[in-house]
Amino acid sequence: MIAPTLHKALKAVEKAWIVGPTKSESVEEAIKVIERKLMFFWINAKMRLDYVELNNSDDFEVIDPR
Predict the structure, then answer these.
(1) How far apart are CA 37 and CA 2, in angstroms?
(2) pTM for the model
(3) What's the rounded Cα separation, in Å, for the pair 17 and 15?
(4) Which residues of the chain have pLDDT under 50?
(5) 23, 25, 26, 31 alpha-carbon torsion, rounded to 10°
(6) What phi and psi, each to the nearest 5 degrees, are found at residue 3?
(7) Contacts of 23 (CB under 8 A, 6+ apart)
């Protein structure tokens, strides 16, 4: 269940980024997707999301906020 959730989160942040929100707003979309899945599947597990970062797909450099 982890891979499909990550894919869905990546698609959510990609869609948000294209529409034009800030980096933090785009990342928030990915966090929402992941946290919803964590709550649904692993409500009793001791798991947490540490961070989400946006990187350039060509060189993997961190994207600056816009």
Answers:
(1) 9
(2) 0.58
(3) 5
(4) none
(5) 120
(6) -60, -45
(7) 17, 54, 63, 64, 65, 66
